Batch of 4 targets.
Target 1
Amino acid sequence: MVTSITSFGRSGLYDWMIQRVSAVVLLAYTVFMIGYMLFGSELDYQQWKELFECTAMRIFTLLALLSMAAHAWIGMWSISTDYIKPTGIRFLFQSACGLLTFIYVVWGIQILWGV
Amino acid sequence: MLVSVYRYNPETDDAPYMQDIHIDIPGGKDIMVLDLLQLLKDKDPTMGYRRSCREGVCGSDGMNMNGLNGLACVTPLSEVVVNDKLVLRPLPGLPVIRDLVVDMSQFYAQYEKIKPFLINDTPAPAIERLQSPEERAELDGLYECILCACCSTACPSFWWNPDKFIGPSGLLQAYRFLADTRDTAKEERLADLDDPFSVFRCHGIMNCVNVCPKGLNPTKAIGKIRNMLLSQAT
């Protein structure tokens, strides 16, 4: 067993579950957005604003945003532990991924509640 | 036909190279790749490869034949030769000792990790620990593994992390003991596997299933281990 781990949940099963659940959330969000854009009535600013002012949509979007952050972190962590062998570069890469993910989440929340 | 063989002798060669050898198959028969290797060795006795039982039981002569891992002794030329050419390489991902002979230490270290023996702390019965035919049937498709390493060395996850990912062969064996009703260490075995590398580096690409010379299915066994972990944890 590999005991020292810096992945998401430190347990392989937990990471695996989070990745599956977040993938389902992202799929649902993508299908909803594509459906909304294809079959929603006129796509003007007012309608778009009303959509994102709705609390349910904010919850759904935040859920999708957090799902993407967790999904991306687990994926990028796996990729880096597969392909980047020098520890220094791997650590830098993982730190950059973590920082970017954090920025995107905060920025996303700001946009979402700025509507 | 043309045979291109990976050659490397660390005592005399600076780097590995491919040696092209033209050879006529006696009587144009559809011989096994191992027989072809013997013909090559008759021509050049310095050629190194492992072999023992020559009938797909011992698992010594695993190698990469035209890009696909398999046992040379049970692979007829007609199955692998393309355009009258055969490229023979050692099993990918493991350190080469010489020519087609690889160092299997990492592979065995992973096998050792999964504790490949029955653990049962209860007092031994007078005769033996019995299983019903149904319980015994659970082990079919698992116990037949001969540890030839064809599967693990066909797995990219094993190439990148041979020290952390157990690999398809080791995991098939791990499930063989998890599925055994006579074993009492199920929880400890599962706890030892629940990290992001040991089991979960398997992304289910099924290279292992594609190359297994015994027709076994490590991906299915890995899925069952995952389900066991899931039902234990949730």
Target 2
Amino acid sequence: METFAALAHGMAVAVQPMNLLYALTGVFLGTAVGVLPGIGPALTVALLLPVTYKLDPGGSLIMFAGIYYGGMYGGSTTAILINTPGESASMATALEGNKMAKAGRGGPALATSAIGSFVAGTIATIGLAFLAPWLVDFAVRFGPEDYFALMCVAFVTVSATFGDSPIRGLTSLFIGLTLGLIGIDKLTGQARLAFGIPELLDGVEVTTLAVGLFAVGEALYVASRRHHAEEQIEPVRGSLWMTTEDWRRSWKAWLRGTMFGFPIGALPAGGAEIPTFLSYSTEKRLTKHPEEFGKGAIEGVAGPEAANNASAAGTLVPLLTLGLPTSATAAMMLAGFQQYGLNPGPLLFAERPDLVWGLIASLFIANVMLLVLNLPLVGLWVRLLAIPQPWLYAGILVFATMGTIAAKPSVVELSMLAGFGVLGFLMRRFDFPIAPVVVGLILGPIAESQLRRALAISLGDPIVLLQSPMSATLLGIALIALLAPFVLKGLGRFKASED
Amino acid sequence: MTESPSSDLSQQPRSQRVDPAGLVIAFALAALAAVLVWDASRLPSTSMYGMGPEAMPLVVATGLGILAIANLIDALRGNLPPRESTDPKPVLLILGGLALLIAIIGLGGGFILATSILFVATSAAFGRRAILTDLIIALVMSTLIYLAFDRLLTLSLPAGPLERLL
């Protein structure tokens, strides 16, 4: 079994003491930042990117794995204790989790979410380890036109198919694509949309965009509507531990959540929102305690949490094997790779197997660390939640600008950060999704260069896009996915019915 | 804090009033498309096979143009999601803090001073009035961050008068 050998090799890389330390640091920092209200995993990764600037690629990616998982766990803690999910994937968790916390069962809610994340993360990482080599074998035969078609599918699913409004999702995507055009065209050396500003020639930095949209935008948005409501932190009362009854009710929900999360995450279908809500409604239907739903049913926390984690591991499948980010967090991970000049995809598996398999192995390790670190430290995380809002957001903005100052301390770059903050504020105010902008910025230039490569090979004949069966099929899927939401307007209805 | 946008899908009213904000959005998208077309038109078209550098901007501009029309229709039908009132003061305060930070970094005032000003401005935007206390907290915090990043991680953060004292 080739996979076992590769994974064993990866384990050998990941358990080196230095790498273990990186993983531990990543998990700790990721949780500490992710637990802050309003900060989702994508922003956690973006904010912590500067910490990894000086590390070697291997250590840095291992730290990323820890930050990624830690950020997600932190997000669910926030969702349970103050009902402010930092991202849509934690919304389902907040529904029952916050009710449990209000009923004095915050401890078991956090425990089922931590253990469920561990179970789901482990199963999904095994899935990733077995699916990845198979997909890589498949992907090495991809021509540039196939990659282009694949990216079209990702564009459409991320922005249009699963959002609330395909028009607003596509608008976000095209803003991202526009930003992706800025800078020197790699094939001809022509400057596009640079307006004579030298700093723009390098293009828009993904971290600047993400931190501006997510951190600065969120701070502006929350500040602008501070007069509406104050949030409330539920103290963790009573026992932290789950009773036998809790275990009995949780384990099936964890497994079912994983079954929803991993495949949907692994398809380029954009994000964890769908599997978490599917899991929530499934648990609600199958439960033997329907009277508890809406009042704090533990299955309603266990399932969505598992689905969320499994889908996060699932999104690593297209990211690592095809270089295709399908969520804002995955886009940030790709940015992390790119800072070392590494491009995830089939070639990376062949050229740097130590790196890829070390990363996959460290996902297992990060998962174990989360479990042993977070249940005992839950008191510390709760205290982080209690930071007064003015200091919290002031601190977030200091960290947000620090990342940019550390990377490029220029007036232009910082002005762009502020400008993206205003954009993020306006998009929140008018209900445009943020993730498609980030995905558009990072995938747009890649899609363009694949398309141009395909057309250069075919001497400019666009029929090449339809001649490859793969590319023709994928473009067909993209078209269907684009038109589907207009045809079936009620795709989001199951979400509304759960409220 | 924020209620998630999609969770109030069910009670979304379908008002028939034209939303001026929607018109502005549609106009901004159209203007962006125009900028793309203008910029692409300056690029010398190459005689390469396939697509030149000007092709993709034109594709994106077309998309933006279509979306401008779609957003315009949404706005005319009053289909924009409902939104709550906002208070512009804190937003301007934070943006002012950011502007000061940019100016201080640009003029060589250093990391500690710049981020401390941003900290105080943001904290004031969120309703704190104890400016002196916040300033002390900010100075201590940004000094610690500076030392951690500059000494431990050897990342160079811009140094000004305060940093040279360390």
Target 3
Amino acid sequence: MKSRAFLAAVLAAALAVPTVARAADEMVFASWGGAYQDAIRKAWLEPFAKATGAKVDEDTGPETAKIKAMVETKSVSWDIVTAGGGGLMRGVAQGLFEPITADMVKQDDVIEGARNPYGVPSEIFSTLIGFSTKAFPAGGPQPKTFADFFDVKAFPGKRTLPDKPETVLEAALLADGVPAVEVYATLSTEAGMKRALDKIAALKPSVAVWWSSGAQPVQALGAGDVVMALGWNGRFQAGMDSNLPIAMSWAQQIPQVGYFMIPKGAPNKATAVKFLNFILKPEINAELSRHVAYGPATKGAWAHIDAARAERLPSTPERLKNALFLDIEWWAKNGAKATEAYTAMIKG
Amino acid sequence: MTIPDGFPLSAARLLRRHAGWLGIAPLAALLVIAFAVPVVSLLRLSFGEAGFTLEHFVRIATVPLYRSVLLTTLTISVLTTLLCVVMSYPVAYLMATVGPRMRAALIVVVLLPFWTSSLVRTTAWIVILQGNGILNRLLMGIGLTSEPVAFVYNLSGVLIGMTHVLMPFVVLPLYAALRGLDLSTVQAAEGLGARPATVFFRIVVPLTAPGAVAGATIVFMNALGFYITPALMGGPAQTMISQMIADNVGRQLDWGFAAALSTVLLGATLVLFVLFQRVFGLDRLFAGGGGTKSGEPFRLTSRGRTAGGLFGAVMGFAVAVFLIAPILVVFPMSLGSSPFLAFPPTDLSFKWYVSFFENSKWVGALVRSLEVAAVTVAGAVVLGTAAAIGLDRIGPRWRRVLETVFVLPMIAPVIILAVGLYYLFAPVGLVASIWGLAIGHTVLAAPYVFITVRAALKTFDPNLELAAIGLGAPWGTMARRILVPVILPGILAGAVFAFITSFDDVILALFLTNIRTRTLPKLMYEGVAHEIDPTIIAAAGLIILVTVLVLALDLVLTRKRS
């Protein structure tokens, strides 16, 4: 029994040796697996392979730490990796990504807040309020703004917030009456940071869960452990699609951008560039939102999205009017300190 | 007198003197190459990546958050260890005093939590413990409380989750120690009129302490490195240092600071470990059963249970229920159709089981996991056993040093080892191969075998070895006929621990495998930041089912043979 397993192991190891010779058009795409990667495969990878004849391989787990290890040991096996703005900026700071110039990929159609010289935006997702329709049924008062989220008198009940400060500090200042355009300037001052932390500290007695995984707020809302959550629109939407008693408020939101990058030393850079141009074509760009409730980051894509689908997406021109984009440069500069202060506040 | 005829005297003496080192060398070599080199190359970043600096340590010392996290880590680890020991006694007692079939069932109950991935375990616990969870509905239903009790997202949640999964490390050695207890000692005490409590505290505890201490050491060192359970079942006040290390390695990409935190953790643990050795003595730490082996093993006598024994048995049963509870909710949960896990499920469906078998990635990952675990168990058992046997045959000073050195992989943060191994393996093409992963797992698993075999060796009488060799038996024959049978329980316990170490690892797999070589835990964690794919619950259900079936079949076959 054991010897057979061992034999199988030997065989598997022999098969796992990567092939050295590569066909002309090949590409390895690495993302986070699960439903997200399934959506990307259907919307973009398979159509790209079909349209160009390129062979697209997939991998999973593009941790920034692993990209760094690959780049430094010159063993990069990925051509496209995906990350949020935070991962992008940290990678850029360590020189892990190829710059993407206008000659390589034309990004004129990408909306202002989403452009970056090292990444092509793949989608927009939002942090916003999700609430239990059992606690706040239609017809009665329902929470709308971040101010409502922090108002335990008008909307009593337990809350859940992320255990990391990104989006929470912003929401706290917006709730405290700071205009959107001044949020990051305020956070950059010591008094402003304290103002945000104090606002959250005041809410602490009503916080039942500080979540670390995007599935948690939906689980907590669905189980009735909390009545309101600061979480991601795609997750709330999935809960609503499974008939959990949840609704979201689009009145105020903090959108973030997901990016595709080319790691430095990628073996098939040319194909990767071709792929990035492919997904920015308006009709192709619109495809992803068919499979997952993330909005396109281009203006042209909206011509190919009908009203029913747009209803589920965070980046409609209408909804972006009430949005404060997460400032990834601010977080790259102040993230470590802010995380330290935030963790100390919620821990203490 | 102990040297066989025709064997050159000097060569024999030379071999005798160095035979110990021969056993130690393979594990020592593995740990130098695949542990010390990669870990030290990362830890030195704590003194700066370009030039020498102490800024990372200054930050740890001056920002109060880090001191408080370190203190929290130690507190949670100590509490978990105490809970594990206290709760293990009744279970071990129950195991020692019931019939063989009941005992087999109890062993399954104790080991099953190990078999389910940490992600599945914590998910099941949350379903049981949350505000509107099974336990609170039960408590409110029978009127014990009118408000839901907060069991989870706080200290109690972390302690429940960690004690649940770490308890087997104490139960098994404790059970062995209890079996080694001489029944006549207990009978003598009872005959002299000792009450059950007196028997327990004056006889059972002192004589089984070495087994409990060995288990407690493993639990404590394991607990220090936990971060998935506290992240999911605790609140912010339970942030542990490994969470911060992983965050700084993976998310913040601040490897210098992560290395500094790891250095502080390693240093603190080593100091504690050495102090512990001073107080308790090395021999006690690694000793297995207490007492001499001449008497009848501890069991239930014909006089039945005393009042204290009955109390112990009831408590043992309660702890067994605690151990099996999350496993019991996994099955019903896996039969729902909603992607959001609920108990009881709103409808009945085999959707997630179909998804498991339809998608080759799940079956492939399971097979890969078993392959890696098989190689790991083989490697860890051979290296760990050889080192444990060899250690008895070298000088006491070296023995003391090596005993500490060989358990180091248990306390070093796994993510540090994972990153270090990537740099080591990438140039030689071992990343993305199951061999690289198996080597990494062997580094983590061999210490368990080493400890359990060391404990078993304490009950081995070296005179037996001398007698056998004196009677002309070659060393190999002596080992096969005398040594191995005695230490076999230790080897088996170590093999189980080694299997689990490999089968539940996510972090090494994250760095050392790709989509073709990924293991089941890695696949389970994919996309977990966004959603939990209920297929993992089905996967866990299948693994439990197969385990129980194999053990049941074994029980049936054993009965037929006898």
Target 4
Amino acid sequence: MPLTDALPIAKLNQRTWHPNAVLLSLSLVMLAVIWLLNPVSVAPNRIVPGTSYHLLDAVGWFGALLISLLISALVALALLPTRANYRAMLALVIVMLLLMPFGLMVASHWLVDPGLPQARLSIGAASWSLLFILLLCLVELRLRLGLSRLATTLLLSCVGVVWWLSASLWLQNMALVQEFQAREQQFWRATLQHIQLVSMAVGVSVVAGLLLAMLMRRYAKLQKIAFSLLNFLQTIPSIALFGLLLAPLAWVAANIPFLAQLGVSGIGTTPALIALIAYSLLPMVRNTYIALEEVSSDTLEAAKAMGMRSSQRFWQVRFPLALPVLLEGVRVTTVQAVGLTAVAALIGAGGLGTFIFQGLGQAAMDMVLLGAIPILLLALVVDASLGALADALRPGGHE
Amino acid sequence: MIELSHVSKHFGEEAAVDDISLRVAKGKFCALVGTSGCGKSTTLRMINRLIEHSAGDILLDGQAIQSYDPVKLRRRIGYVIQSTGLFPHWTVARNIGLVPRLLKWPRDEVTARVEELMGMLGLPIEEFAHKYPHQLSGGQAQRVGVARALAANPDILLMDEPFGALDPITREKLQDEMVKLQARLHKTVVFVTHDMDEALKLADHLVVMRNGRIVQQGSPLALLQHPEDPFVDSLLGGLERGLKQAALTRVKDHMTSLGQSLPAQSRIPADYSLRQALSMMLRDHCDRLTVVDQQDMPIGELSLRKIVKEAQLDKVSARDAY
């Protein structure tokens, strides 16, 4: 037993009553938001700006009362935060998330004129804010309850499935659903393209990053040059980089037929991939380099002193110990690439960005959302799964 | 057997180790003692070629270490460091079995050896085999470190302040076990420490270093009786030296047969140290003790006057021996 264990434990938290200020203020803001802002708007067709409706108009007295009661319960529980109450709050937040599509259903039933087939319901400021604040509550609850990343992801996936089902079954009048149904095939193709672009860019930069980081460890001079080059690349705005690549690649395609046959051209996938890889390299190389350097020198010296050859030291000690940090780099890189790929649509590389730029061009906000929401979800899924993988690979299992 | 003759190590202009010569006979325990930065760790690390020496010869069983492949050389030398250097992503059992696996022992032999070592070092297999280093206390981790160093049964063990980071109680316990282990295994050990008491307790041969040079070397008793230098004297505790020397001497070497006079009230076992005997005399206000054997039967007598007189005689003979 370490001697420090025998010391008396200092008594912290002498205060007996301390409400959870975060959840308390979040739920009060929620109450204000749903009564002061409008939860939905209705437009007769795609282009005309819609009319906003108040909570009472959207879900009636009964609905407004129910949601207010739920939020008030959250306020009450946040005043006395015991572990059981945190659990109850988690349940409340999940219930509210699950009820949101049903609220929209009620609103569309009352507000959308069935005689107008083009009429559509859009989600308004109050609903977006409510969703955002509920997710913030979830983050706080996750920390308080010590939930694992995996558990939170599973909970949110359940909510996602319910939303998906209600959207496809009952929310035909919702603008987002209409946008989706109008171009379902295009949507799936774009999603696939997006994933392909991201995985190719990340795949190449993982391999290149590892090689580059290993070279940097061997040749100290290379390290400075490579890092300053990669840092410089990172500072070029993405749209500018796409533009800069246009001319040289078009020239290459025009003058080297072999490469043109391979699909190299001034616009399209090739410049998009080059730019994505250029951006992905810095976080990848930096993390790989730091991960490999960070391994305790005592451990490595012990490995040497035990008679491990240098390749054994690298593959059996340095690399496995660096792996969690390295994966963290892959995670950051991938999340960044998911977002950047949206911009690649500008030069005709396809992907979900297409909807964003088309929607912006047509002033159809719901089409922009059709591109933006899946990108967001994709980033979240990547973040959660790679994060979980890095956790699982921590040396010595879980703490 | 390890032999260093006129070995130096230069880092640039600076000499970290400056012309040292030293010989550790097979099965002997040699401690390198000195303040930090005196070159003792560098000396140790030159033996398994973690650092290559710049001048002089280092011989292992009569053969220059440069003639060995460094990897093979290190596999036959056990190495223990203060921070343990255990691999955090491997279980205790896998850590211990490292060198035998590197030497391509058959799998069941590795398992058997790991189990044997865990038993030897007081690490119950069911409890520890599947733990990871971060789940161990400092003392347990260092036991694993020692087990890993002993795994392939090397003749030579290099230890770099292995117990330096432990709390005093654990440190003393591990030192005691090290004494027992060495009595059983007879390894040729080079042990680096800045703790003189630890060195006195463990070593057959003491080497005091300062600024990369050897100030004095010899048996612990010889150094205690005749420090050649104020630095060695202060390392050995100055005024405390007499007691430290007494701690290294057994009661049975100074007892006389039972006299005519009445046996003394206080009794002391024959294998206790003179230091304990002196302490007992102070505690019980007496100048004579009855020495008893393991069955608590009186076998002799110890008197303060005689201890003091013989300490002087020892001093004379130790000086003659030089």
